[in-house]
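@channel sequence for tomorrow's demo:
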Amino acid sequence: MSFEINGTNFPQAPRAGQCLRTFLRELGHFGVKKGCDAGDCGACTVLLDGEPVHSCLIPAFRAEDRAITTIEGLGGEIGAHPMQQAFLDAQGFQCGFCTAGMIVTCAALNQAQRTDLGAALKGNICRCTGYRAIEDAIHGKTNVEASVEAGDAFGRSLAAPAGPDVVRGMARYTFDTEIEGLLHVKLLRSPHAHARIIAIDRSAAMTVPGVHAVLTHEDAPSVLFSTARHEKDWMDPEDTRILDDIVRFVGQKVAAVVAESEGAAEEACHRLKVDYEILPALIDPEQAMAPGAPLVHPDRTSANRVADAQRNLVAETHGEFGDVAAALAASAVTYEATFHSQRVQHAALETHGGLAWLDDAGVLNVRTSTQVPFLTRRALSDIFQLPLDKVRVFCERVGGGFGGKQEMFVEDILALAALKTGRPVKLELTREEQFTATSTRHPMRVHIKAGADADGRLTALQLDVLSNTGAYGNHGPSVMFHAVSESIAVYNCPNKRVDGFVVYTNTVPAGAFRGYGLPQALIAVEAAIDELARQLGISPYDMRRRNIIKQGDPMLSPPPSEYHDVLYGSYGLDQCIDLVERAMQVDQPQPELSPEWLTGDGIALTMIDTVPPAGHIADAMIALNDDGGFDLTVGTAEFGNGTSTVHRQIAATVLATTVDRIRLRQSDTAHGGHDTGAYGSTGTFVAGKATQAAAIQLATELKAAAAGAWLCDTASCTLEGEFVVSGVRRMSFAELAKLAREAGRPLVAHGSSEGTPRSVGFNVHGFRIAVNTGTGEIKILRSVQAADAGVVANPMQCRGQVEGGVAQALGAALYEEMVIDAEGRVTNPKFRDYHLPSFADVPRTEVLFAETSDTIGPLGAKSMSESPYNPVAAALGNAIADATGIRFTAPPFKPDRLFPALHEKFGDSGGQLPR
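structure tokens (generated this afternoon):
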């Protein structure tokens, strides 16, 4: 057989049944990605005789004698296809994992298809961008600033350093590498929600040719840990083992097979015989708290950081300021309701996975898709009793995270397999495993009571929160504490009460997810603000203006916090409200709607602490090179959050150079230093401060070196345009590097940040929508978000973070939902059954920035990758209530969820009734 790939003939024959995607990757075409293996996401798109196809659906043998073009060959002899350049000019990517397939599809569009991009791009999913930058690329819009003077990088819309490699399919993600002698790991998973493993018979599995090992709980350390990764271990319960003799949810790993091929490992998994003792299972969190309920972790104690295992409580919190009951009784208006939020999947296009091997020095190397390489190294060191310098964890580019990769789901079993076999091993989760065996957003029940006086001043706020953490605690306590904190701390109110519970159930675990509990709480809090305003006849904007905290006000949520380092680094919440109100008042053409469509507006606001409490550490190192450029080493991972761009902008600005002169190394524990990880809105705010500190120190060293050569005062020296200048004297950075080399004293500096004090960020979102009373369909007519990001480090990139956060939040607000049946099984573990937003689903969002400068963040900046998600569902819920007069309390707001109440109120007339 012969295959023509990018103009070159390959004589290799595919294996029987092999799809084109895996065949191309085995031939080294790593730009062809795996996102679903079901034809749903488009990450594997290639051209077959000029037509875009999902290569995961094409049997490889069917491509014989046909022209196959992958992203690497799209440009042909010219090097870069015009569509690749267009994506580079528009920066039509974030993590970039979907970009190769997206570009291949876009490059094949004809003029007719370009007029209906919703239909043309329905087979390509992007989880990061919100699609606006992709649309810009298709229409030839340039978003990147072409040239910036030395020292003027910060605050400019500069391109991501990996951009050229991303658009050419050359950026390397976790599995885009070849390792000789690689073995494959497949996992046998529990079919039961709760069971004890009595015995595992591996004899039949070991007869499968190519099987090297079958690993069970008997082969693994019995150490308890948390899959959640934080700088401080006390933040998470210790309730997890690598492999356990008790399984607590459908999908939990039971055994690992290590074999020469994935096929052999899968076959061996099928042959394993497991004898289970079925135990009572809890699916409903309310029932889990009831007296006499079965216990999920009966032997866990406070020593494991579990609050009360005998009540299935992982954590709880209670506190009150003032007297809420008395204040509610005396209020002019009150509101009380219960809201429920659903289970949502992160759906990063690159699933969890990694490779592990022992090198010649006996170091355990783990190449993985993670947001937290340094914390993962520490965990592996503890679990396997290895010295820290004998463990290396690193990643290149990560295909999306959204908090889901602030966990250790695969690295532990990879390490076990590598240590047991002595061979390099690979584990790549399937899309179904990603749904059923990693983590989700915490489903929550939030009961709210709120009151206000006749002038619209809040008198009382009370939250009663029940959070379902699933079978393991992961981030359960921290998510709950976060949910009840900033959601009400943003409002001045003399009487506040909080009661919160985090409960174990025998369901897939919940964990960290963009927003970290705030979206679930905000949908209740912001609804209450709107309902009180409606009763008083006050506009939703004015109701918030009367009650939001102002700069200098205490940010309070009961019980009192032991951490008092959250400050107003900058305050732009008032600006954000004004910006959204003005934008919503601007007249724009609206579609003609028939009488059964009702329109309404809604807003919601959010505040977020830009760093987790109790410390978040980042180190940076920067050195002057012989050519006058700089090597910058940081620990933060790049997964579409844009920190790689911002770190270079910070260093280039401080050192009076251009970003192309800053060469970046990152996310590898072998580089030294420490970095807690890229989560909690810290990539810019904490790690960026470390880069700034290192660059400032190196600038001082440069000036001192030049002053020493000139025998002048260091204070007379400045950095200007890649020179040290003192009066009429000028010395280039390259000349300084030569002097330092000759003196045997390389010019290098270190910087660090400990994540305290912390600042706060603000976001306000506004929607104008139309609701069809006959069908329950929702049309979004206008979407606006204003953000206080301090000095915006990179406006183009920051706007993209907001747009992507809004798109992801809209998916959860409108249709995303993981469905779990009465036996604890996830019934829709595929993209096809789980509606991710596609191009046609996402409206353009107008993004506006407050004009502030943060006194704490690097060069006045705050982070803005997490918080844009938070107010979206709440604002949409308020808009639906404004349009229909009905308060819907449980997203997703699907047509079938809205229809019964709409039909009851409006009947079959389909027309607007008086309200």
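heads up for whoever presents: The chain has 25 helices and 31 strands.
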